[in-house]
Amino acid sequence: MSSAFIQDIIFLVAVIGLGFPIGKLTYKIMEGGKIKFLGFLRPVELCVYKAMGVDENRGMSGRQYAIATLLFSLFGLLFLTALLMCQGFLPFNPEGLPGLSWDLAYNTAASFVSNTNWQAYSGETTLSYLSQFLGLTVQNFVSAATGIAVLFALIRGFILKKSKTVGNFWCDLVRTVLYLLLPLSLIVAIILMSQGVVQTLAPYAQAAFLQGGGSQIVPLGPAASQIAIKQLGTNGGGFFGVNSAFPLENPTAISNFVECWAIIVIPAALCFTFGKAVKDSKQGRSILIAMTLVFIVALTLTTMSEYNLGPQFNNVESSASIEGKEVRFGAGGSALWGVTTTAASNGSVNSMHDSFTPLGGMFLMFMMQLGEIIFGGVGSGLYAMLAFAILAIFIAGLMVGRTPEYLGKKIEPYDMKMTCVILLVPPLLILGGTAIATMMPQASDWLTNSGAHGFSEILYAYTSGGANNGSAFAGYAANNVFNNVMIGSEMLIVRFIPMAAVICLGANLASKKAVPKSDGTLSTTGPMFVGLLIGVFLILGALSFLPALALGPIADYFTML
Which residues cross the membrane (predicted)? Predict the structure, then answer.
């Protein structure tokens, strides 16, 4: 177990150490500044603006920004749905795979447009190369950039004064893709290809067995390019069916570390971006500390759970729970990836979460149920955490009888309404969807297991969809009309209603004047605020989901005693 914790320490050092320069780069992107070492991309940026008819110097109101965000995502949803349904008639389909059914196409399109990447299919047997690189990979870029753009709108709400605009969505989108996501993806893709991750348009290969005279089909495709952005953009959808547990998607210890690192490096970097934008690095640092502390606790508990087999395995000669895990990475490596992917709304896996111990699986579930804020998705994690910060400040203000303020802006009733929408829509959809799915007459047919573990499979599926995570217990048969429509709609609602509320919140904050600090202003950089912030989102998560967790993984644990 000690080697696992050493790996965890190196991992966190790499995330925070490289997150700082990436955060500075992202700040330059947000403010529209020149990026010297990427200056050769400036003509490309201008050409894109000209083709789109966009004036980079013209800002948008909150309403305009929200409409642009929603219409762009709607276009992506319709285009991707049509592409998936028609892939059988389109090129770059060497295996002759047919088009998807309407419900699976809708579910998949909703999944990738919402930055969830829930997959009710197996990639190598369902999707053509064209669907992978033109459909899914493109959405991996633009859905991630959309989340970051909306975060920019909220941050501008804090730094602008009496402003009627919150930036330009199209400029934020283009600059994020061009200067942040594409360069980082290129670097990560090259590293992955050097480790053996496939990147080809060649048809699937036939490999002969060394013994017995048989053979098997080896799936190929342009995998490295998609894997790079699926990790960096906290998308997570695997090119192949078993995601990063597949040897051609994650072949070595180096590729495993890089892919895992890529999941949270941008969410961590955005904390530095936030601190630099508000001209107080301590603000971003306090948010990062709160995230990191909870991450460390969850990682420690999950790792310990996976190394503790439980009483029914007392006589088994094993040092850890290896069922459903790659022996290349072991229980420690699987625990690190599992906590990282659920902390960051990524959803990629290098093991099967259905095979985690009951408490290990519970910690993964709870990380999503907190609201995907412990690092969270790119952009979406930080803006949800800032909503929790506003709630914490509001509660503190009630306790002392003072109008709450955050970063020089008064928090008023409208701001709290938007904050409540941001924070309450996901748990409502998660618990409501789980309840409806559980009551379906055919629910038992969709489960691999019965009892408490079976309920955990349903709860995990709707938690994953409602948290825009996309991972699965892998024991729940989700590819049917009911689940495709329910989970697909859930993913869209929990993505775009809170996103619209974030933009409205940013616009309202931007229209206000700054309030000077006074002796009564609550410090939002010290240990007390960090503790208050952690307490608020842990209590809210516990109050919302503890009854459901008691029926699922907690009950599953006690049945093993």
Answer: 6-27, 65-90, 133-155, 176-194, 253-275, 287-307, 381-400, 421-440, 492-510, 530-555
Residue 280's contacts (CB-CB under 8 Å, 6 or more residues apart) are: 407, 525
Maximum Cα interatomic distance, the chain, rounded to a whole number of Å: 81
Strand, coil or helix: 396: helix
Which amino acid type is present at position 171? C
Rounded to two decimals, the pTM is: 0.93
Helix (H, G, I), strand (E, B) or coil at 119: coil
Cα angle 328, 332, 333; round to 5: 50
Closest CA to 476 of 488, 459, 489, 458: 458
Phi, psi of 216 (to 5 degrees): -145, 160
CA distance 399 to 391: 13
Mean pLDDT across 372-393: 92
On average, the pLDDT of the chain sits at 89
Contact 419, 523 (CB under 8 A): no
pLDDT greater than 50 at residue 129 = yes
Q: What DSSP designation does 131 have?
A: I
| pLDDT tens for each residue of 211-257 | 777 888 888 989 999 999 999 999 888 888 888 888 899 999 899 99
How many CB atoms lie under 10 A from the CB of residue 159?
Answer: 18
Q: Are 347 and 470 in contact (CB under 8 A)?
A: yes
- Quick one: tokens of 27? 């700040």
CA-CA distance, 548 to 554, in Å (whole number)? 9
Which pair of structure tokens corresponds to residue 380?
């979406």
Using a 10 angstrom Cβ sphere, with 0-12 exposed, 13-18 middle and 19 or more buried, the burial of residue 113 is buried
Structure tokens at 224: 């490295």
Question: Rounded distance, CA 389 to CA 402, Å?
Answer: 16
CA distances, 511 to each of 41, 163, 345, 506 (Å):
33, 5, 31, 9
Is residue 405 within 8 Å of residue 411, measured between CB atoms?
yes
Q: Where are the alpha helices (DSSP H) in 440-466?
A: 451-466
CA distance 3 to 418: 45
For residue 502, the SS3 value is helix
Other Cβ atoms less than 10 A from the Cβ of 326: the count is 20
**3-class state of residue 315 by DSSP:** coil
Distances (CA, A) of 361 to 45, 236, 305, 356, 405: 44, 18, 9, 5, 38
Cα gap 521→70, rounded to integer Å: 37
**Which residue's entry shows tokens 């909150």?**
62
User: Residue 410: beta bridge partners?
Assistant: 405
Buried b (16+ CB within 10 A) or exposed e, 504-530: bbbbbbbbbeeeeeeeeebebbeeebb
Residues 6+ apart with CB under 8 A from 539: none
Q: What is the pLDDT of residues 499-514, one digit of tens each?
A: 999 999 999 999 999 8
Alpha carbons 477 and 446: distance in angstroms, whole number: 5
Task: Give, in degrees to the nearest 5, the angle at Cα 348 between 342 and 352.
Answer: 85
Residue 124 near residue 219, CB atoms below 8 Å: yes
Report whether pLDDT(351) > 90. no
Please enumerate, as own/partner, the contacts of 383-386 that have beta carbons within 8 Å and a separation of 24 or more: 383/150, 383/151, 383/154, 383/422, 383/502, 384/422, 384/423, 384/498, 385/287, 385/290, 385/291, 385/537, 386/154, 386/274, 386/287
